[in-house]
Specification:
Elements (H helix, E strand, L loop, with lengths): L3 H18 L1 H8 L6 H12 L2 E6 L5 H15 L4 E6 L2 H16 L2 H4 L12 E3 L5 E6 L11 E5 L7 H18 L5 E6 L7 H6 L5 E5 L16 H10 L2 H7 L14 H6 L1 E2 L10 E3 L5 E4 L2 E7 L10 E9 L6 E10 L3 H15 L3 E6 L1 H13 L5 E5 L2 H16 L3 E4 L3 H15 L1 E3 L5 E3 L5 H17 L5 H4 L3 H5 L11
Parallel strand pairs: 1-6, 1-7, 2-4, 2-5, 5-6, 8-16, 11-14, 13-16, 14-15
Antiparallel strand pairs: 3-4, 9-10, 11-12, 12-13, 17-18
Length: 491
């Protein structure tokens, strides 16, 4: 019969062997960390890819996971040389303190520290021949040839110059020290739409994945730690531009945005809420007399109807009698709506709001959709907006002017309305003029912004205040876009 000491040694050796075979066992059963589905995806990415980069939300365990994975490699693979980089020396040393504490507080790891050999703050040499070294971005790496490199939040600053310095160091200093068999593990939060992470996404040798706190369907990534309600509270407590970058991993500089947050926040109306049908208008005798105000609808359709399709967005805008303010009063925002579902929804909105004009974004598919909707409801006042580069710029410049003049009111009177307005603000804030001179969104979706811009355009078209130069000078749009000028003429 084994003594208690022998039993403890047997259990310890069993744990070590289990850890050697399974990182998850080491991470969860030995170290006691929570393990979510996104951690499993990260583990799979690290196992399958030599150069693996994760862009992830703040406070979702990315540094803990990647540092622990590096420790696991060093602890259970003898003679493994690992280097850790972060944006600052302070942050790098914090990672080393985290690793040191894990080793000192755990029986499975404690014998990694050699007897009589004190560790420096930034360099650990283990009893199995493995080594871990920590350095900050910008530090020299010549003479070092690690088996594994961990880059944790190496980006710093938000200016183009600061981000370029990090990229120059990465390509000119770090990559050259990597042997062709070395492993590169990167994790961080993006700073700009053209930062180092964005560059690596374009390179075939790098596997880059993004894990926002809330996905495109509105589902929280790690609800046990950050549920949707907690994330919504955090969203309310900080500027949208920072929340979008830190938690949704979709950065854009506010100064470069076509729609800065100050004009978007000024448009919020706490007395306005989304409604399901138009309010009723009453005449002087108190009798119902049609709908209250004029309504305009912008429709940004999606083509496909599968689960990976874009969102279809329909925005209803109201102008009250004798007022210039344009109020957003109803929104349809659904992924994967079929052509038939979109037609039925538009017929329903036509009946509920009796719009003066429906502006439909146009291409070949939308033109067919327009014709089919007219056949379903002959009284539907549809006009197709054929989107080209210059027309799109006119569309959004018109919307920007309406915001700047204080003529747009976004609903903010209840939770449903606030949720919509926050999504709209995020989409609008991601619009800006890119280096190529094109108006583009750096976000994943722009359907809410597009449908609002179309609704605003419809309101101006109805009043006859919109003038498209292409309507009066055929070919002007193509001429501005740089196409052949041979057929351009003024009638």
């Amino acid at each position: 019969m084994k003594t208690n000491e022998e039993m403890q040694e047997f259990i310890l050796n069993t744990d070590k062997e289990m850890c050697r075979k399974s990182f998850k066992y080491f991470f969860v059963d030995i170290l006691g960390f929570m393990y979510n589905h996104h951690h499993e995806s990260w583990k799979q990415g690290l196992e399958e890819s030599q150069y693996y980069c994760v862009k992830a939300s703040r406070d979702h365990g990315k540094s803990v996971f990647f540092m622990t994975y590096a420790l696991w490699l060093a602890a259970f693979t003898p003679n493994k040389h690992i280097m850790i980089f972060s944006h600052s020396l302070e942050q790098t040393l914090e990672h080393m303190r985290f690793i040191r504490n894990l080793i000192q507080e755990n029986d499975v790891l404690r014998d990694l520290k050699p007897q009589g050999k004190p560790w420096a703050k930034s360099y650990f040499e283990f009893s199995n021949g493995s080594r871990m070294m920590a350095k900050s971005v910008g530090g020299a790496t010549r003479g070092f040839h690690p088996d594994v490199v961990v880059c944790d939040d190496i980006l710093w600053g938000t200016t183009a110059t600061e981000l370029a310095k990090t990229a120059d160091w990465f390509y000119g200093v770090l990559l050259p020290v990597l042997h062709h068999s070395s492993k590169l593990m990167m994790v961080g939060t993006p700073f700009s739409y053209n930062d180092l992470y964005a560059e690596l996404e374009q390179k075939e040798t790098f596997r880059v994945e993004t894990y926002p706190a809330i996905d495109a369907d509105g589902v929280a990534l790690w609800p046990e730690r950050w549920n949707k309600e907690a994330l919504d509270e955090r969203r309310m407590s900080m500027p949208a531009i920072q929340f979008t970058r830190e938690y949704l991993c979709e950065p854009i500089h506010d100064v470069a945005s076509m729609f800065p947050m100050n004009i978007l926040e000024a448009a919020r109306d706490t007395n306005l809420v989304l409604i399901d049908r138009a309010d009723t208008n009453y005449n002087e005798e108190g009798e119902a007399d049609g709908v209250f105000g004029q309504h305009f609808i912008g429709h940004d359709p999606a083509i496909a109807s599968d689960k990976n399709a874009d969102f279809t967005a329909m925005t209803v805008m109201r102008i009250k009698p004798d007022e210039d303010k344009k109020e957003i009063v109803h929104v349809v925002h659904e992924r994967g709506m079929s052509s038939m579902a979109q037609k039925r929804m538009m017929v329903m909105l036509n009946n509920k709001f009796v719009p003066e004009l429906i502006e439909l974004e146009g291409n070949n598919f939308q033109r067919m959709l327009e014709q089919e909707m007219r056949e379903m409801a002959a009284d539907m006042p549809i006009r197709v907006f054929m989107t080209t580069r210059t027309k799109k710029e006119s569309l959004f410049m018109s919307l920007l002017l309406a915001f700047e003049q204080g003529n747009i009111k976004t609903p903010y009177g209840d939770e449903r309305s606030k949720k919509y307005t926050h999504l709209l603000e995020q989409e609008l804030n991601r619009f800006g003029m890119q280096k190529n001179g094109k108006l583009e969104s750096v976000g994943v979706h722009d359907d809410l912004a597009m449908s609002l811009a179309l609704a605003n355009w419809a309101s101006k078209e109805f009043k006859g205040s919109v003038v498209l130069l292409d309507d009066y000078m055929p070919g002007f749009d193509s001429w501005v876009s740089g196409e052949s000028k041979g057929n351009w003429m003024i009638p």
